[in-house]
Amino acid sequence: MRVFAACSHGVGDIAAGELQELGFKTGAVHEAGVEIADAGPAEIIRLNLCARTIFRVYIRLAETDVRTLDDITAFCSSIPFSDWFDAGQPFAIRGRREGDHGFTSMDVARDVGSAVIEHFERVKGKRIPVNLDEPEIEIHANLKGSRLEILLNTSGRSLDYRYHRPFQHFAPLKPSICAALLRLSSYTEYGNLLDPMAGGGTIPIEAVLRALNIAPGIYRNRDEYLFHHLRFIDRAILDSEIKKAEARVLGNPQIRVMAADRFVKNVEGMKLNAAQFGMQSHIQIKQGLAETLSYIEKGEYDCIATNPPFGMRIGSTRLTEQLYRNFAKACADKQIREVVGLTPLKRTWISSFMQNGYAITHSRIVHFGNLHVTFLKASLQ
Ligand SMILES: C[S@@+](CC[C@H](N)C(=O)[O-])C[C@H]1O[C@@H](n2cnc3c(N)ncnc32)[C@H](O)[C@@H]1O
Fold first, then answer.
1. Which end of the chain is more exposed for a tag (fewer CB within 10 A), N or C?
2. The pLDDT of residue 325 is above 90
3. Whose CA is nearest to atom 5 of ligand 1?
4. Residues enclosing ligand 1, CB less than 6 A?
5. Please, what are the domains in the chain?
């Protein structure tokens, strides 16, 4: 099967690196995903279960160039949908469209849906039910310019919903973005990591999960995956992949991780989140200011990975810029060798670190939702 592993726009190469490390033979690498040419049921399950930097795994059913809705209908009527699922399975089409077209994404979804229904009536003599809320089969019809791709969602809702956090921070970063950011960090080599603006603790938790080699999907409610409903996927394969993943878990992370935040509420919330994973002894949690990092000694930590405030609220940009300047100075004072972070205020971040003896050794734009941020790595010279 041809598989497309989707990630946030801008981290395709990072995701490809992770998938190769997990043993997958990757094909084309796009800004927002990675192709895998020849994946069987076990590989599809393993991708869903083990990969940290992707958020959905699709099977590529078909793709072509189209201009009109009639082209879409004609093309979709040739897709053998009944090779993939049965007439009794409720299905939904999710349409997405980018570019100039004289029709909407709803029109695309409606016409692809009609093609599915007609296919089952023609080939099986049965009407397949539509269920937009709780489908067993979810097909994504993406039209980008003239390119139409028809994808079968094996993950269900985003793999970013991989674990329950008892404390919900008001601006949590998606785990797959944290995992991608962490892959830019050298924390596994240095053996230590600090997140001084940790909020609900997503970055430190992801860092420890990776250090313990815990597959993120282990915590997910298994019924959320949609691959169960594909007839060629046997639940026994899932059980066997889970067993293999559990056998790979390490007993000790071999890294020191500290998380801090200025607000007690977040510090207490983070403690609850860390406890949820039994990570109380793996993450030291402090209350303190990123402007001083007064809770650590000089030279105690080499690596920082952090998601600072973005200064998006009215009037807060100036304060945020001041925070970045003071934070960069504190990093230099505490001899932090490497700081990875993401921000929409790229210029301030760069100048703050450069004025404090750092060189910018990595920079890339990443999109999530409507937000464009820059991943930046600053290395002490
Ligand atoms: C964008 S949030 C981090 C969210 C986190 N990555 C998560 O997934 O939950 C930024 C955090 O920085 C904290 N913060 C803001 N200013 C700070 C400062 N001067 N020192 C330490 N923490 C600060 C905020 O309280 C907030 O929790």
1. C
2. yes
3. 199
4. 169, 171-173, 196-200, 202-203, 261-263, 266, 289-291, 307-309, 323
5. 3-153 (3.30.2130.30), 175-213+248-380 (3.40.50.150)
